[in-house]
Design goal:
The chain has three helices and five strands. It is an alpha+beta fold. Bound molecules: zinc ion. The site of zinc ion has 8 residues, from loops.
């Protein structure tokens, strides 16, 4: 199990979770109240954490988080999922380039 992402912002958490769902990446959500301390600071006690069930997804899942963080300021402009014209992979709307082959949909 590997911790992927944590936030106190329910909107951020939901956005990440829906991206992971779209990619069929298995994860679980931990809440500090429910799970007990894992070395976190007390003021983070309402923070929720997204953990990967299978570490082998980490590289892919971390791209989801990175893409989300890069775009979080304009994420309210809801972006459509898109299919890469290079390799045919489905990409979440938060991706600027294909997670699989780094092709931009705008080229
Ligand atoms: Zn691609």
């Amino acid at each position: 199990m590997k911790k992927l992402f944590s936030s106190q912002d329910a909107f951020e958490l939901q956005a990440i979770r829906s991206e992971l769902d779209a990619l069929s990446i298995p994860y679980m959500v931990k809440n500090e109240f429910a799970s007990g301390a894992i070395g976190e600071l007390p003021w983070q006690d309402s923070q929720q954490e997204v953990w990967l069930v299978d570490d082998s997804w980490y590289a892919r899942a971390s791209k989801v988080v990175d893409a989300f963080m890069q775009n979080s300021h304009d994420v309210k402009n809801v972006k459509e999922d898109w299919r890469c014209k290079q390799c045919g992979e489905e990409n979440g709307g938060a991706f600027e380039v294909c997670w699989q082959c780094d092709t931009s949909p705008h080229n």
